[in-house]
Fold 8-amino-7-oxononanoate synthase.
Amino acid sequence: MDWLADWGRERAAAGLQRELTPRAAGDPAIDLASNDYLGLTRHPAVLDGAIAALRRWGAGSTGSRLVTGTTAEHELLEVELAEFTGAESGLVFASGYAANLAVLTTLAGPDTLIVSDAASHASLVDGCRLARGRVAVVPHADVDAVAALLRDRAEPRALVVTDSVFSADGDLAPLADLHRVVRANRAVLVVDEAHAIGVRGTGGRGLVHETGLAGEPDVVITATLSKALAAQGGVVLAADRVRNHLVNTARSFIFDTGLAPAAVGAARAALRVLRAEPERAGAVLDRAGDLARLAGVAAPPSAVVSVVLGDPERAVAAAAACRAAGVSVGCFRPPSVPPGTSRLRLTARANLTAAELDTIEQVLRTVLVEVPA
Ligand code: PMP
């Protein structure tokens, strides 16, 4: 496989080589890189929820959800997530990625037009690639382009696919307008709420709920349990008939082992904490505003603060400088973001302290001024 070395050299020359850097246990760096938006991943109640489920059901779920991989705990989590977001039902997957593949491959057929936002998450893009319908990618947040495609289509069925909070820029999809054109054109709106659950909407119920679209029959939500909910896994929140269809036809549900019990228990506990302390959702947005101010960018409508630096080399150098100064930040480069928009991605956490923000201020001031353009 000599060609791998050639491809590796091309990646390195473009500044796009990636390395895995294991986290050190007890790392004192301030975390602005993870998706632990509500700061729940080490919350005692969440750890206890994981341990109790682990002890009760075992380390693994032991099989497909359709065979031995469904525990009572999986079903409770599904009911609780549906109730929380206002959906008719929920179906838990081993990951959000698998949930997105499931929705796109099973709700679309050869007679289906799939309209996807240019900034849709990679797992939605891969779902589009695996689905058998015609895929049309529209410019980011361009509702008129969506409407024109839906109106002029030859296909009897159509899906419109978008993130609600976009993962790289942290901006919001125009869900109300999208739903209006979806409804008018008898289509279905598929919304990935991975970065919105726990952050947007009353008590973190998500942007679909905030937009007044909870429980609408033509809206299908996908989400992950790995960000605000501090665990692992994915979920589809939709009408009962969608759930039933997915259980029977989604290959990433049927041929995948059910989510591990510990992850289910952790997600249930995180949801209980969020319900008891709904102010965590507002706190994460407030802290994102603080981080944006310190970085000299506009306050985002989500937990994601994006500081665009341009070249991948510059972004990598800035991220390394932050790391060396004790602040761990994300670094996004192509293909995760368009060429020329490599960036630092700072994610806010509800439990960032004033002392941490002071340190972050000093580090960002030094790094953003000193890293050469
Ligand atoms: N959708 C979006 C918008 C995401 O950011 C992610 C995770 N990065 C996923 C889906 C996939 O979720 P999971 O990590 O649970 O597979």
Notes: The chain has a mean pLDDT of 96. The CA atoms of residues 310 and 341 lie 5 Å apart. The chain has two domains: 44-276, 278-370.
